[in-house]
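::Encoded backbone::
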Amino acid sequence: MSPAIAIGVGAGLVVVFGIAAAAWGDRLGRPAQVTLLVVPVVASAVLGGRYASYAVAVLAALALSLMMPPLGSPRVHLREDVAALTIFAVVALSVTLLVARRVDALQAQERQHAALLRAVSHDLRTPLATIQATLSELAEPTAVNEEDRRRLASAAHDEAERLGRLVADLLSLARIEAGAFTPRLQAVELTELVGDAGRRLAALIPVEHLLVEADTPSSVVQADHAMLDQAVTNLIENAARHRPPGTDVTVHIRSEGTNVVVAVADEGPGIPEGQLERIFEPYRSGDLPGSQGLGLATCRAVVDAHHGSISAANGPTGGAVFTVVLPRG
């Protein structure tokens, strides 16, 4: 509901509850009158958000002042009445703020769920369509020769692995956002982790185009191996999908005080300036052409859970650079 309509509804409720409070004032007493006039404020907060409820809170305070001597006038004479009116205004605005924050959180959650459905449909459609088309061709024994059969089977396998990574991202992100993830810390060698991820992604980026540079004698951090492996794989896959054919993805590992820094750079078109922060938002990065939608959001969630940081920038000569800073533990 729009704020204007919510204010109208709230104002109507102020009139109704104000008349009831004034008519039964002798029976109800001042506390009950105050409680009745808080109801329209809460209702407007639920219907139209905080700004609508602020306006209705002012109207409710005005209605309450009309019930205080001199009756029918917004002026109040007694010091106690001034204090009571002030307290009412403070309470009404406080309740408004609490309710409005909760409503905003619920609305944000609904928007996130809607974005989740868009991201899932965006990200899962391509591998599913590829697998279905490949299996349809393989189902015709005379349609392809043995070499093409092996190629199609390999393509289906690669897409199935990609699909598995997307589902893993979705489950991991849901666990982290629900507060159900606690890292199981162990010693993780980042150079080996990057090598393992590169071998898994060999069909997407040949080994000779994945360059690993380590400027530190030790790249060991205390981390959850499975989750960090998932984040590193996502970063390399994201870079590989955005690089022009035949170009490299470079992973640079270095020490920085008590931290280890991992920078993943590609030679692609880079990231529009306005998207540098938005690209990490859950289920939002899929709005960018060719991006994963879930992968980068999962990366940030995993890095945050390890008390690290992740950022995106454009390289000095083009391409995108994703930088992860992890404490050694």
In short: Residues 79-138 form the longest helix (60 residues). Residues 285-292 have pLDDT under 50 and may be disordered. The chain has three domains: 3-107, 116-177, 185-327.
